[in-house]
């Protein structure tokens, strides 16, 4: 969208400058924000899938251990099966909860929500500890979200100067 030309004078020459708002740098940064949102969703889904795989594997191992104790021998399998099942549940829940903030932040960035910038900055700081892919994603996230263009795009802008709505038949 073009803003009206701004007239400036330099010596004897008068020339116009056109201000491009969200056309050049804004469009590129908007693309970076969308890419960051998609990458965060992918990273969150991969992390959550690790938890689901761990839950499935440890649940299967717990079932196999418990089933092997049916033969009548007392080798502690009736006690070990539920413990391994609880460990699998804990590991699975940990990884699902670890991936959830990335999914939420990525969704917020895709929808250009104002809260997503600060939320994803925090998530990007934690991604730095997730070597090697999380580190790259964290650095990219910090680069995108700390820029002035993304701050302008993701700020909570007023939606317009509309008068307050009143009830029908009443004066406001």
What does this protein structure show overall?
The protein has helices spanning 25-68, 77-110, 115-127, 133-145, 148-153, and strands at residues 6-10, 13-17. The chain has 172 residues and is mainly α. β1 and β2 (13-17) form a beta hairpin.
Short description:
This protein has helices at 25-68, 77-110, 115-127, 133-145, 148-153, and strands at residues 6-10, 13-17.
Uncertain runs are: 12-23
What characterizes the major β-sheet?
Answer: 2 strands, antiparallel
Indicate the radius of gyration in whole angstroms: 27 Å
- The number of distinct helices, counting runs of at least 4 residues, comes to 5
Order of helices and strands: EEHHHHH
Structural class, from helix and strand content?
Answer: mainly alpha
How confident is the prediction overall: mean pLDDT?
A: 82
* Overall morphology: elongated
Strand order of the largest sheet: 1-2
For the record, give the distance between the C-alpha atoms at the N and C termini, rounded to a whole number: 34 Å
Number of strands: 2
Assign a percent range to the helix content. Answer: 55-70%
Question: How much of the polypeptide forms β-strand, as a percent range?
Answer: 5-15%
Task: Name its key features.
172 residues, mainly alpha, two-stranded antiparallel sheet, 5 helices, 64% helix, 6% strand, elongated
